[in-house]
Amino acid sequence: MKLLGGYLADFIALLFPELCPACNTSLVAGEHVICSDCRYNLPFTNFHTQPGNIVAQQFYGKINVEYVYALYFFNKGGKVQNLMHHFKYNGMKQIGNVLGNIAGSQLKQNPIIDTVDYIIPVPLHKKRLQERGYNQSACFADGLAEKLNATVELNTLIRKKATATQTHKSRFARFENMQEVFAVDKPEQLAGKHVLLVDDIVTTGSTLEACGIELLKVPGLKLSIATIAYAE
């Protein structure tokens, strides 16, 4: 019976092959969600070994951060863009867990991240969350938490209002667009804690900056940032 089940699974896979969302090639036995070639050869930033990396520099003089990280470089038309499209718009939320695991394996090598108490994803507005069905940053946070000694916290950083898309806006316009969007509920829970704020893609950093401004109002809070990709 077990052998028959194996043949049936192989037959179904032949008719409806599971494809890698980054490169669109068929996954083979033992591969999960993302093919082995993409797992090892997507454009890693290696920011976990570069404390003063180019993303960290975006926040200098704006918010006080302990550590800033992005897993991949995002290039238009590249495999990371394919991956993120499937993740955000095609319902493949399992991608977030896989990428969180990969990022967590890198980040746990850093002693600064070892002190993180809470992982907080950038929240979606209730309307957007209802439309999409999940918060992609929360999926990434769950994957990170599996590798890091930290707890995902979904209820303290809240999004008070929906915002227009940030696409095609200048850095200043993006920052203005995010003013008074976020707030911290029950700040006493975060007092004196080290928070890892996570998002999917960072470009100008305006969304993360707006979140960071609110979080850093909490007494004694230390802030680090991690994202899946950095778009130059």
Structure description:
It is a single chain. With 232 residues, the protein is of the alpha/beta class. It folds into two domains: 1-41, no CATH class; 42-231, 3-Layer(aba) Sandwich (Rossmann fold), CATH 3.40.50. Helix content is 37%, strand content 17%. It is built from nine helices and seven strands, in the order αααβααβααββαββαβ. It has helices at 2-15, 36-41, 54-58, 79-89, 94-107, 126-132, 136-147, 171-177, 206-215; strands spanning 67-74, 118-121, 151-152, 157-159, 182-184, 194-202, 222-231. Strands 1-7-6-2-3 form a five-stranded parallel β-sheet, sandwiched between helices. A two-stranded antiparallel sheet has the order 4-5. Strand 6, helix 9 and strand 7 form a beta-alpha-beta unit. Helix 5 (94-107) packs across helix 7 (136-147) and helix 8 crosses helix 9. It starts with a helix and ends with a strand.
Summarize the structure.
The protein is α/β, with parallel strands linked by helices and 232 residues long. 37% of the residues lie in helices and 17% in strands.
CATH topology of the largest domain: Rossmann fold
Unreliable stretches, pLDDT < 50, 5 or more residues?
11-15
- The proportion of strand residues reads 15-25%
Q: Which strand order spans the largest sheet, edge to edge or round the barrel? A: 1-7-6-2-3
**What's the order of the H and E elements?**
HHHEHHEHHEEHEEHE
**What share of residues is helical?**
25-40%
C-alpha geometry: globular
Structural class: alpha/beta
Count the E strands: 7
Distance between the termini: 53 Å
Helix count? 9
CATH architecture heading of the largest domain: 3-Layer(aba) Sandwich
Main sheet summary: 5 strands, parallel
Give the averaged pLDDT, no decimals: 89
Number of domains: 2
**What gyration radius follows from the Cα positions, in whole Å?**
19 Å
InterPro entries: ComF/GntX_DNA_util-trans, PRTase-like, PRTase_dom
Protein name: ComF family protein
Family: Belongs to the ComF/GntX family.
Organism: Mucilaginibacter dorajii
